[in-house]
């Protein structure tokens, strides 16, 4: 069973471009880990949200990727650069 997530982020306008770069860097790190099938950064058509989408071959691979983020030089902190909390939806294949 494959697993994944869709995370929607709502950066302040003045942090938008930097936030897109942050999410792209996180996706790079995730893609470099074993078992990650895809990791992408999207922007909504209205530009209000940045969406990260990732998919793994298993829950164990996802967990390993998340641990790898902890030791990578990436910024995943939620802080005042975002206007509202992130919305994260966990997915499992049917």
TrEMBL record:
Domain annotation ABM: ranges? 6-66
Top-rank lineage group of the source organism: Bacteria
Would you tell me the protein name for this molecule? ABM domain-containing protein
* Native organism: Amycolatopsis regifaucium
Q: What is the lineage of its organism?
A: Bacteria, Bacillati, Actinomycetota, Actinomycetes, Pseudonocardiales
């Amino acid at each position: 069973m494959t697993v994944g997530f869709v995370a929607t982020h709502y950066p302040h306008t003045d942090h938008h471009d930097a936030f897109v770069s942050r999410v792209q860097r996180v996706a790079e790190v995730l893609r470099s880990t074993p078992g990650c099938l895809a990791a992408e950064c999207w922007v909504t058509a209205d530009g209000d949200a940045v969406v990260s989408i990732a998919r793994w071959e298993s829950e164990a691979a996802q967990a390993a990727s998340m641990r790898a983020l902890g030791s990578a030089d990436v910024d995943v902190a939620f802080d005042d650069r975002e206007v509202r909390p992130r919305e994260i939806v966990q997915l499992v294949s049917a």
